[in-house]
Amino acid sequence: MDYYAISLFLILFVACGYADEFLFAQNYSPLWGGDHLSVLDQGRVVQLLIDEHSGAGFHSKQDFGSGYFRMMMKLPGNHSQGIITSFYLTSIPVGGQATNHYEFDFEFLGGHNPKAYRLNTNVFANDKGHREQQFRLWFDPTADFHKYELFWNQYYIVFFIDGTPIRVFKNNTNIGASYPSNSMHIEASICNSTAWVGPVDWSQGPFIAHYQGFSIDGCNYDTLNPEACNDWNAGKDRKLSPDQQRRYHDARKKYMVYDYCSNNSKKFVECLVDIPVEERIEEDTNSAGFNPSSNWDENLHT
């Protein structure tokens, strides 16, 4: 089993300005869009463009069973209503059909100006999803790169923005909820959806997103030993730090504008636990699993 190690040292190093020098082609490949995907700065930056003819996307070369996945993104400016810029993990095979599957999404929904952007996070648990939590952003996502991260192990999925946890999705299989345990890979794309987020004013385009930071810290999925990745980060405490807990509550209180459990609680077993929503969030936070291994080995970082 190959492990791609993660460490608290690494996270702090990145947060303090470490430049991720891994090139796009080392871990990723173009998926669709042809010349609407451009590799820039000698492989350090990828540009995705959408116009009335096509969008574009890329995917990781490997599948994973757990890990810490991040991407630096700079979103399209202009009047971007109807444009969706994304970074996510999915179990759908490359080129496969979108049936019931596992997936966790960062989806940025464009608006009439940068302040109108909404972040839609979603979790698919062997179904069609609809576990949306949406957030206003507290910064201009079009002015510079920001870091978006997904942490996934057998206990929790944690969504981060610039190091601030904004969402925790707990493994609740003990009460009948589904939780990903099979292989997943990374995808990123720019597309449009009139039915979901409205029509696009193509006269404002083309719309361009930029991605950088192409290293991956995860456990390679082994089809011969599918449970091998359960040990990834399993021996450490799995809690947000007090500072992370404070920032988690602050971000959700100030910026969360939609929570599926508040609107469709009867449809999802994880929303039916006999605990009020705010107390449930508190419990998730106090139990959340993000204390990476201190056994950092540069040879395992890809």
UniProtKB/TrEMBL annotation:
<dbReference type="InterPro" id="IPR010713">
    <property type="entry name" value="XET_C"/>
</dbReference>
<dbReference type="Pfam" id="PF00722">
    <property type="entry name" value="Glyco_hydro_16"/>
</dbReference>
<dbReference type="Pfam" id="PF06955">
    <property type="entry name" value="XET_C"/>
</dbReference>
<keyword id="KW-0808">Transferase</keyword>
<dbReference type="InterPro" id="IPR016455">
    <property type="entry name" value="XTH"/>
</dbReference>
<dbReference type="GO" id="GO:0004553">
    <property type="term" value="F:hydrolase activity, hydrolyzing O-glycosyl compounds"/>
</dbReference>
<keyword id="KW-0326">Glycosidase</keyword>
<dbReference type="GO" id="GO:0010411">
    <property type="term" value="P:xyloglucan metabolic process"/>
</dbReference>
<comment type="similarity">
    <text>Belongs to the glycosyl hydrolase 16 family.</text>
</comment>
<comment type="function">
    <text>Catalyzes xyloglucan endohydrolysis (XEH) and/or endotransglycosylation (XET). Cleaves and religates xyloglucan polymers, an essential constituent of the primary cell wall, and thereby participates in cell wall construction of growing tissues.</text>
</comment>
<feature type="signal peptide">
    <location>
        <begin position="1"/>
        <end position="19"/>
    </location>
</feature>
<keyword id="KW-0961">Cell wall biogenesis/degradation</keyword>
<dbReference type="InterPro" id="IPR044791">
    <property type="entry name" value="Beta-glucanase/XTH"/>
</dbReference>
<dbReference type="GO" id="GO:0071555">
    <property type="term" value="P:cell wall organization"/>
</dbReference>
<dbReference type="InterPro" id="IPR000757">
    <property type="entry name" value="Beta-glucanase-like"/>
</dbReference>
<protein>
    <recommendedName>
        <fullName>Xyloglucan endotransglucosylase/hydrolase</fullName>
        <ecNumber>2.4.1.207</ecNumber>
    </recommendedName>
</protein>
<keyword id="KW-0052">Apoplast</keyword>
<keyword id="KW-1015">Disulfide bond</keyword>
<keyword id="KW-0134">Cell wall</keyword>
<keyword id="KW-0378">Hydrolase</keyword>
<dbReference type="GO" id="GO:0048046">
    <property type="term" value="C:apoplast"/>
</dbReference>
<feature type="active site" description="Nucleophile">
    <location>
        <position position="103"/>
    </location>
</feature>
<dbReference type="GO" id="GO:0016762">
    <property type="term" value="F:xyloglucan:xyloglucosyl transferase activity"/>
</dbReference>
<feature type="active site" description="Proton donor">
    <location>
        <position position="107"/>
    </location>
</feature>
<keyword id="KW-0964">Secreted</keyword>
<dbReference type="InterPro" id="IPR013320">
    <property type="entry name" value="ConA-like_dom_sf"/>
</dbReference>
<dbReference type="GO" id="GO:0042546">
    <property type="term" value="P:cell wall biogenesis"/>
</dbReference>
<keyword id="KW-0732">Signal</keyword>
<feature type="domain" description="GH16">
    <location>
        <begin position="1"/>
        <end position="211"/>
    </location>
</feature>
